[in-house]
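Q: What would this chain look like folded?
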Amino acid sequence: MIDFRPIFLVLGLLLSTLGVGMLLPALVDAASGNPDWRVFLASAAVSLFIGIALILTNRFGSSEINVRQAFLLTTLSWVVTAAFGALPFMFSDLGLTYTDAFFESMSGVTTTGSTVIVGLDDAPPGILLWRSLLQWMGGIGIIVMAVAVLPMLQVGGMQLFRMESADSSEKILPRAAQFAGAIGFLYLGLTIICAAALWIAGMSPFEGLAHAMTTIATGGFSTSDQSIGHFDNAAIDYILVLFMIVGSLPFVLYLHVLRGHHRPLWHDSQVHWFLIIALGSVIGIALWRWNTGDEAFSDAFRYTSFNVVSIMTGTGYSTADYNQWGGIAIPAFFFLMFVGGCAGSTSCGVKIFRLQVLYAAINVQMHHLLQPHGVFIPRYNKKPIPDPVISSVMSFFFLFAVCYAGLALGLGALGLDFITATSGAATVIANVGPALGDVIGPAGTFADLPSSAKWLLSFGMLLGRLELFTVLVLFSPSFWRG
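A: My prediction, written as C-alpha cells:
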C-alpha cells in the first residue's frame, strides 16, 4: 500500500503557500477599491485551512518518499494547485464557470498561457496579478521538478541530468527543498531585473511586474487582450525576447555562473542547439517576410524574432496575428510549438536535449548502415549516452505522438474544426498558449469552446507539463498493485 502521509504533507505545504499567495492580489484589489478582495481573502482562508489541516494531521509520518509516491505527488501537486487556484476566478466578477476557472488556473500553473478571459484591459488588478502569480509559481515548480524529481523517476530520458547527490529516491524531498531555495533567489532576482527593465522601457510598474513574472516563467499571460502588441514598443519587445530566452536555458547553469564558473553555460550543447534553432528560424522567416511583403527588414525582424521566440519557448505572447503571414510562416510556427527549450528551464515542448539524443541515435544508425562492423557511440555533451536514456527518449517521442493524436482526435470528435483541433492539441501538449486559426489563434481565446473540450485541453496541459509518463503511469493497474 502507498503511504499517503508524506504526500498529504507536501500538498498541505503547497496549499498553504497558495493561500498566502492569494493575499497579495487581495491587498492589490483592496488598495484599488475593487470588491474582489473579499473573494481572494475567502479563497485564501479555504486554502490555508485545508493546507494547515493536512500539515498537522500528517506531520508525524515518514519523511522518506519512494518512487511510486513521487509519481503520485508530482501529478497531485499540479492538479490540487490548479483546483484551488481556480477559486478566485470562479467567485470573482468575471462570471466564469468552474470549468472556465479550472482551465484558466491549469493554464497558469502549467505555464501554458491559453486563456478563456475576454476583456483583460478592464479586468480587476487582483485577477491580473493572480494570473501572473500562478504562472510564476508554476515556473519555479517545474524547474525544481525537472532537476530534483524527474531524473530520479527516469522520465523521458531525464535521468541524463541526475544530480550527483541523487543516489536514492528517499532523498527527493530534502534535495528538492535545498535546490528550490537556491533557485528561488535566482528566479526572484531575474524577475526583478526584468520588471525594472520593462518599467524603464515604458510599462507601468504593475504591468512590468506582471509581465516579468510570466516572462521568466515562459507562461505568456498578459494584462491586455492584445498581449504585447498592446504596447507597440520595440524596446519592450526586445527586452521580452531576451528574458524569454533566459527563462528557456538551464537554471542550474546560472547557478554555476553565480559561483564564477562561466564555462558550463557557454559550452553546453543544449544552449548551442537552442540558440541555433531560434536564430535560424528568426532569420529565415524574417527574410521570407521581407522578400514577400512591403515592410522594412528591421520591422520584419522585430516582429518575427518576438513571435518566433515566444512560440518556440512556449511563452505564448504575441505582437501580431501570425495567422495572416501565410506561406512558410504558419507551418513553421506549428512545428516550432513542439521544440521547446532546455531541460531544467521553465520552458516546455519536447526539449532540446531529446532532439540531440534522437539526432545522435540516428547518426549512429546511419554509420552502422554504411559500416556494419564499426563501433559508433552516440554522445551528448561529448559524453556517451547510456542505452536506457536512448530507449527512454525514443519512448517519449512515440508516446508524445500518440497523445497528440489522441487529443486532436478527441477535440475533433467534440465538434472542433480541423485547424482548431490539431493546433489546439499541439498548443496544450507543448504548453505554448495560442494556437492557429481564427478561433484559438493569437487574436482569439478558448472561451467559445465547449466545456468538454476545455476539460480535455486541461488534461493535455497537465500531460505536456509533467512529461507524459508522470501522469499516464498512474493509469497503470500495476502502479497501484506495487
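The CA atoms of residues 201 and 236 lie 6 Å apart.
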